[in-house]
Amino acid sequence: MVEPQRKGVMNYARFLTAVSAARKPSPIRMLTELQQRSPPSLISLAGGSPNPNTFPFLSASIQVKNGQTVTFDELTMKRALQYSASSGIPELVTWMKNLQKKLHNPPTASYSPEQGQMDMCVTTGSQEGLCKVFEMLVNPGDNVLLDAPTYSGTLAALQPLGCNLINVSSDQHGMIPAALKEVLSRWDPSEVHKPGSTAPKILYTIPNGGNPTGASMTVERKKEVYELARLYDMLIIEDDPYYFLQFEKPWAPTFLSMDVDGRIIRTDSFSKILSSGLRIGFVTGPKPLVDRVVLHIQASTMHTSSFTQLMVSQLLHSWGQEGFLQHIDRVIEFYKKQRDAMLSSADKWLKDLAEWHSPSAGMFLWMKLRDIADTQQLIMEKALEKEVLLVPGGVFMINSSDPCPYVRAAFSLSTPEQIDEAFKRLSLLIKDAL
Ligand code: PMP
Ligand code: PLP
């Protein structure tokens, strides 16, 4: 196969909103970061760092399940309690860059910064990264492409920006390239750079174990979608929090792995593999765009908790890539068993009442109820009486008030016995409603 050639250097400025383009580095943040890279002999009267000797916490010792301990001695604890760089603590960013290179081998890793070299920053969960990426790229009135049903957190971040969300049809293998082509045929690819063009500039998708559909995109589809993005000069936002929850190996090649132009912004999350409450995620993308996200972080949260980052970083460094991937294997094994348990309970109780596809990643089963046109009332009003809770599908639709026959069931938290009992209750609920 002939590898695609780069199309020349991307003009990232054309994608930025006025707000994002107007962001300037905070002078004090720059001094703080400079100070952290300097030798201890530097006497700094700059910055506004408080004196950690006045802080009440002294040291910490965190037991890890495998018998290891993550220890913060007094010096490390002072660092954990102090301000740190807005892009993330350097040793964590370096570890993650190495992991991205190992997993995705992005062509952009070897580019110059202006050419869109791969860069990364730490975010307070991938939700923060997504929200900041959308605010960087989406103007009121812009056409934005996505495959709905989609993650309600994405809709919550995008809809208030006043954009026009265009749905691209999808099935159990994710976004359908022919449907994307059809949507894009409204615009002439040779005119997308003309002033006033309404052609979409961004496409958002969840490539693995989609929330809520459980759908995973095939590599062939990704290649076709990437080629269409090149033709229309679009950026692709690859929101992949279930990447590490793919049940079958080898894992599917990512958009990032095929990014010869520097048009992929990828969000990763530790929420499903290390902790959801610690709030840690990553934005990976072309440096000129990651820089804009970091400027936004400087002006909002300043940085993800230093304590969280140091705790995670120490664990990752002690594990190495191999130990990390061994941990992932154990997580996968758990979720795969849970999925199988949910599928067998669905077969047992819901066979004649609902339809579904087996998800090959993630933690959701998306079910279409055969004889219920809208699950909203069934779930929000009647399900609680029967003591079973699911998410009505409507919340994942662009227009949440449209009738929707789907429900989302998560197999992450309940035991197989509870899942079985829940589906028994759901089957009774549906039969009562008929
Ligand atoms: N407001 C003022 C006036 C400040 O001086 C600072 C910290 N330098 C902040 C807000 C930000 O504080 P925090 O670290 O709690 O985000
Ligand atoms: N993106 C998708 C598709 C999700 O399902 C979720 C969490 O449910 C997130 C992003 C947010 O993840 P995080 O906890 O890293 O902010």
UniProtKB/TrEMBL annotation:
<dbReference type="InterPro" id="IPR004839">
    <property type="entry name" value="Aminotransferase_I/II_large"/>
</dbReference>
<dbReference type="Pfam" id="PF00155">
    <property type="entry name" value="Aminotran_1_2"/>
</dbReference>
<keyword id="KW-0808">Transferase</keyword>
<dbReference type="GO" id="GO:0047536">
    <property type="term" value="F:2-aminoadipate transaminase activity"/>
</dbReference>
<comment type="similarity">
    <text>Belongs to the class-I pyridoxal-phosphate-dependent aminotransferase family.</text>
</comment>
<dbReference type="GO" id="GO:0016212">
    <property type="term" value="F:kynurenine-oxoglutarate transaminase activity"/>
</dbReference>
<keyword id="KW-0663">Pyridoxal phosphate</keyword>
<comment type="pathway">
    <text>Amino-acid degradation; L-lysine degradation via saccharopine pathway; glutaryl-CoA from L-lysine: step 4/6.</text>
</comment>
<dbReference type="GO" id="GO:0030170">
    <property type="term" value="F:pyridoxal phosphate binding"/>
</dbReference>
<dbReference type="GO" id="GO:0050094">
    <property type="term" value="F:methionine-glyoxylate transaminase activity"/>
</dbReference>
<dbReference type="InterPro" id="IPR050859">
    <property type="entry name" value="Class-I_PLP-dep_aminotransf"/>
</dbReference>
<keyword id="KW-0032">Aminotransferase</keyword>
<dbReference type="GO" id="GO:0047958">
    <property type="term" value="F:glycine:2-oxoglutarate aminotransferase activity"/>
</dbReference>
<dbReference type="GO" id="GO:0047315">
    <property type="term" value="F:kynurenine-glyoxylate transaminase activity"/>
</dbReference>
<dbReference type="GO" id="GO:0005759">
    <property type="term" value="C:mitochondrial matrix"/>
</dbReference>
<dbReference type="GO" id="GO:1901605">
    <property type="term" value="P:alpha-amino acid metabolic process"/>
</dbReference>
<dbReference type="InterPro" id="IPR015424">
    <property type="entry name" value="PyrdxlP-dep_Trfase"/>
</dbReference>
<dbReference type="InterPro" id="IPR015422">
    <property type="entry name" value="PyrdxlP-dep_Trfase_small"/>
</dbReference>
<comment type="function">
    <text>Transaminase with broad substrate specificity. Has transaminase activity towards aminoadipate, kynurenine, methionine and glutamate. Shows activity also towards tryptophan, aspartate and hydroxykynurenine. Accepts a variety of oxo-acids as amino-group acceptors, with a preference for 2-oxoglutarate, 2-oxocaproic acid, phenylpyruvate and alpha-oxo-gamma-methiol butyric acid. Can also use glyoxylate as amino-group acceptor (in vitro).</text>
</comment>
<dbReference type="InterPro" id="IPR015421">
    <property type="entry name" value="PyrdxlP-dep_Trfase_major"/>
</dbReference>
<feature type="domain" description="Aminotransferase class I/classII large">
    <location>
        <begin position="73"/>
        <end position="426"/>
    </location>
</feature>
<protein>
    <recommendedName>
        <fullName>Kynurenine/alpha-aminoadipate aminotransferase, mitochondrial</fullName>
        <ecNumber>2.6.1.39</ecNumber>
        <ecNumber>2.6.1.4</ecNumber>
        <ecNumber>2.6.1.63</ecNumber>
        <ecNumber>2.6.1.7</ecNumber>
        <ecNumber>2.6.1.73</ecNumber>
    </recommendedName>
</protein>
